[in-house]
Amino acid sequence: xxxxxxxxxxxxxxxxxxxxxxxxxxxxxxxxxxxxxxxxxxxxxxxxxxxxxxxxxxxxxxxxxxxxxxxxxxxxxxxxxxxxxxxxxxxxxxxxxxxxxxxxxxxxxxxxxxxxxxxxxxxxxxxxxxxxxxxxxxxxxxxxxxxxxxxxxxxxxxxxxxxxxxxxxxxxxxxxxxxxxxxxxxxxxxxxxxxxxxxxxxxxxxxxxxxxxxxxxxxxxxxxxxxxxxxxxxxxxxxxxxxxxxxxxxxxxxxxxxxxxxxxxxxxxxxxxxxxxxxxxxxxxxxxxxxxxxxxxxxxxxxxxxxxxxxxxxxxxxxxxxxxxxxxxx
Length: 330
Ligand SMILES: NC(=O)c1ccc[n+]([C@@H]2O[C@H](COP(=O)([O-])OP(=O)(O)OC[C@H]3O[C@@H](n4cnc5c(N)ncnc54)[C@H](O)[C@@H]3O)[C@@H](O)[C@H]2O)c1
What we know:
Layout: E1 2-6, H1 8-14, H2 17-32, E2 36-37, E3 42-46, E4 51-60, E5 65-73, E6 85-92, E7 99-104, H3 106-124, E8 131-135, H4 139-151, E9 156-160, H5 164-175, E10 185-187, H6 191-195, E11 200-203, E12 222-225, H7 238-243, E13 245-248, H8 251-257, H9 259-266, E14 275-278, H10 279-283, E15 297-300, H11 305-322, E16 326-329
Parallel strand pairs: 1-7, 8-9, 8-11, 9-10, 11-12, 12-15, 13-14, 13-15
Antiparallel strand pairs: 1-16, 2-4, 3-4, 4-5, 5-6, 6-7
The structure holds nicotinamide-adenine-dinucleotide (NAD).
Nicotinamide-adenine-dinucleotide (NAD) binds near residues 135, 136 and 303.
């Protein structure tokens, strides 16, 4: 049995952000229209290292895409010079059950998480959005900006990180990326400064408490919330959640995992019925997007295996055509 092995570099070469956004959009539609088998992901805590390894399988029945991701989040890693997140994705043939490929999932995770915000920004942000604010300047923040700039004509970007050096390194790197990412990118001294004129905000931090104040939001802003993947983690103020139009990637997963929603629910500030719906329902035309130019919209993503499996299948198709990676006999 042959298995194709793809490195992070192969994954980067195989698909563009625009293609990943399209693949994730189609995956979300399948998820929200009963065409996906997605058990809730299984976290295995590694308590003595304060780490967690998540097992995330999915089968998209519409596109016949089957596979699983194994992703680890080990908070002590950055201090020892290692990435916070390590991941692999296994692609399985839905015809026979045969494993087809194993690929590095670290960049794939950043790509599909960026693509998720690309889908949501396209469907929910104001058409005339020009200014973006990125809170958190880590691995996800890079693909967040790339995705937002892929779907809106962003002219100015502000980035804020608790670690000023991380924000400055981000500015240097992203300024040189080229279109669609603009060159007007600055490090902000505070979240308020970053958010002052922001039409699209991405929160991509490991924070446990809100990373901006509700009063910092400009009317009509759209927020993509990427961190907050456990019941006690929060990035977005409860007051914002209470007044925003809230759209999630998966209702089931976000109500089980996202402190950004679970904390205001516990506090009685919102009810489950205040969650407008899933982004796949909006993409499928089953639910409207924003209702006015003044409304605050909030997309909360916890990450769903359908994103990984859909993007991994696309990568494998492209890689086979481009001759990327190597094949091993198992
Ligand atoms: N939704 C998803 O599908 C998805 C996918 C991947 C990762 N994530 C989550 O996204 C978050 C970011 O991941 P990453 O890989 O970019 O991590 P990272 O460690 O590379 O970067 C996080 C950055 O956030 C900064 N930060 C922490 N608290 C802050 C605050 N209050 N204000 C501003 N900056 C702050 C840190 O200094 C760091 O630079 C993590 O919680 C991760 O688990 C979510």
